[in-house]
Amino acid sequence: MAGAGSGDQDCQRQARPEQSIIVSSPESKPHQSAVASTVAVVSDQPELALEPIPRQSDSVPDLAEPTPASPAPELANPSAVQISQRAGDPPRSPQAASAEAESERSAQGKNRAAVIRFGDITPGISHRGEVLRAWGTPHSQQAETLSLRYHFDKFKSVDIGFDGDIVDAIIVKLLNPLPLQTLVRRLGLADIKPADLHNGQGVRLAQVFPERGVILRFASVAGATAHGVQVDGIVIQPIKAEPYLLRAENNLIQHPALSLIDLRAALQLDHTSAHARWLLAEIEINRGKAISAEHHAAEAAELEPNNAAFRLQWARCLRFLAQYDQAVEETRAVLQIPELEPLLRAEALYEMGLLAALGSQEVSKSAIPLHQKAIEIADQLVVGEDPQVGRAAGRLLVDMHLAMAVEIARGKWERKMETVSQWIERASALAEGIIMEDESQLKLRLRVAVNALAAAAALDQPIDPLLWVEEAEQTAKQLRRASEDPLIRDQIDWDLGLAYFQAAQIEHRRSEADSALRLGELADAKLAKLATQRDELPDTGYLMGRLYFQIGAVYAVHGNDHLSACNWYDQAADRLLNPVPVTTMATPQQHGDALVSMGVSYWETGSREQAIEITEAGVKLVEQAVESGLLHEEALVIPYGNLAAMFEALGETEPAALYTDLAKKITSTLR
After folding, report:
1. Crossing angle of helices 486-509/466-482, nearest 10°?
2. Which one-letter DSSP state was computed for residue 385?
3. What Rg do the C-alpha atoms of the chain give, in angstroms?
4. Which of the residues 152, 199, 268, 537 has the least number of beta carbons within 10 Å of its own beta carbon?
5. Measured between alpha carbons, how far is 147 from 167 in angstroms, rounded to an integer?
6. For the segment 255-307, what is each residue's pLDDT rounded down to a tens digit?
């Protein structure tokens, strides 16, 4: 696959630039989890390096099942940890804070963090003296060591670990394994959602209950017998960040809203956790909170400057905020790391390709070669020895194939239709292969549909988009049926709205006016309510402006109904007149073209001052893009011609002559 669609043979650059799609007249038709190190006490390594001395004690802690009327005194919850916003975190709006607080209350219910007490000892609170007074002389030879061991009738051993003089862990080895659910019930953990702890091969070793500081260790590596999952050890710790991190990672794909809550809790407990900030940035960027995401990603990179994954994610967040120079600098720094892991190198090359595509016409030429190099690396990793890396490389390949399709569709290439189709087909085949192995990756199918429509919208010869729309709708329906998570559902609706928007543009160019209006209104219904939640992304307002322009353009071009068009343009104008950085959504030509096209309808309805004002704004945008090398000067011919005609109709001969001469000068250079 590394050579898929490779440059010179499939896509030769054309000598002439593409034609503008501006509406010039009413008749024209515009075209290893961080947790493992902390909870390693449940691994196969020796837990406490002490020689046992046989001893029995009269004070035996019990694991008796508590009854509602009289809970067992040996298992109590004397201390609670309240989770609140940490100083220095980016502020959240009152509405967002209220919604998130409600989500947290719903997710946690009554399960506030409270460490379990074993006997009279509470990890994180009790000190060495209390242990010695309560349980007597330990089995250990010395009472001042970092850990103490006791032997009781009901347990194989009980080890006490200390952090300084404070109890940091109680490790209970059972005489005989007990069923997992029996212990969950006896310890009052039934209302706590546990996290699974796995080894490097994906085998479950234990379950972790973050709100109670409890780890239940499985009796065998497989963790199950004919009688179900058996537990042979219990670890009780203070409430710590790492178990929340583990559960957040467990839930990241299927329940990101719950992960968000756990990650915030983890940061309250350990504000130096770079891993928590890295995961938070991932969730925040997916839900459009670009400023918050960049804040967390930057802090993760600052806390662990040698972590290439953290620095690459920071670069990605900077790109979403349109801070391109810094994003390029950070991505380049990652690529210069000696012995960079191949998967991270592929991801960094892909990121650099995305950044290059946003640059000048000269810079953007390097986007496809960068993507091709990344694809070559990922291709090798998919069939490598590490299955986890292979799966990640497979998902990356889907994204890179889609990026190639979109870049070729937007560029000046021969055989674009054929080549774009090939890249989309390959992306779809890769995605379906991944979905067959892991149904949780069904979102890849929706991603393929959205990007296929984005590529199709940029092609010279528009294709029928309705099959891709149907694919997007059916996939979105399946995804919504499979998840109640509010963040997942919002992302599904946003992606489906983007599919409708791209399809509306295609149907407009195909002169399918009724279909274009229907799709535009469907896009509005999906995107409008979510746009306010994604206002930290620079192009969100622009996207909505483009959508309203698109609906108005259908009325103007296909119905010659400029009054109805202007009703939609009024909603678009404020959003499109605001300065917007270049993004994959907000391209200078489309931005300027939209304003110039809107000017035509305002002129036709008699709003002549507004028509000139908005056309001049469009001309300035196109001029700036030409000066910076983003557009060819041919893009100015129609805007200049429109302004010349408007000023001439008003009897203002001097500006009319100026814009006429400017248009003629450009035209003469193209002959």
Report:
1. 170
2. S
3. 31
4. 199
5. 9
6. 999 999 999 999 999 999 999 999 999 999 999 999 999 999 999 999 999 99
Q: Where are the domains of the chain?
A: 51-64+73-264
Distance CA 490, CA 421 (A): 29
If one compares 24 and 346, the residue with the highest pLDDT of the two is 346
pLDDT tens track for 544-561: 999 999 999 999 999 999
Which tokens hold the place of 536?
Answer: 């930290």
pLDDT reported for residue 600: 93
Question: SS in 3 state form for 243-290?
Answer: HHHHHHHHHCCCCHHHHHHHHHHHHHHCCCCHHHHHHHHHHHHHCCCH
Residue pair 263/244 in contact by the 8 Å Cβ criterion: yes
Q: State pLDDT tens for residues 133-161.
A: 998 888 766 667 788 999 888 889 999 99
Q: Cβ of 69: how many Cβ atoms within 10 Å?
A: 5
Q: Give me the residue label for tokens 């991603």.
A: 447
Residue 573 contacts by C-beta under 8 Å, 6 or more apart in sequence? 545, 598, 614
The residue type found at 401 is H
Strands (E), 424-537: none
Q: Model-level pTM?
A: 0.81
Kindly report each contact of residues 615-624 with a partner whose C-beta sits within 8 Å and lies 24 or more positions away, as own/partner: 615/639, 615/642, 615/643, 615/646, 616/643, 617/577, 618/591, 618/592, 618/593, 618/594, 619/592, 619/643, 621/588, 621/591, 621/592, 621/595, 622/588, 622/589, 622/592, 622/593, 622/596, 624/588
Q: Which amino acid is at 539?
A: D
CA distance 30 to 224: 65
How large is the average pLDDT for residues 228-242?
94
d(CA 238, CA 170): 10
pLDDT score of 54 more than 90? no
* Side-chain half-sphere exposure of 664, counting CA atoms within 13 A: 7
